[in-house]
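Supplementary Note 3. Input sequence used for the single-chain structure prediction.
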Amino acid sequence: MQNVLEQAPRHEMANPRNYTNLELERKSSLTKELHKRHPNVPQYWVEMLFDYLHGKSDEELEKMVNDDTHGEPAKNPRVPIPAEVGIEVTTSN
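The predicted structure, written as discrete structure tokens, is reproduced below.
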């Protein structure tokens, strides 16, 4: 019986971004710390933020912080998709 249990496959954590073990540990500790500081933000959002910012250079991060292209939120959140994007949107009546 013991031999059968030893041969059973074990769960392996998904790693779609191919992080190294060190990067996974860093992600885990940083996201836990950020979630403690901001408990109203869902843990998943904090992890997505880490994934988005991971691998960006200091120059890119500085540009993101200092660049004012974000501006105010759109008054109409249903902004039409530009034609050059190549997505055709149809509405049904």
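The helical segments are 2-7, 21-37, 43-53, 58-66. Residues 15-61 form one domain.
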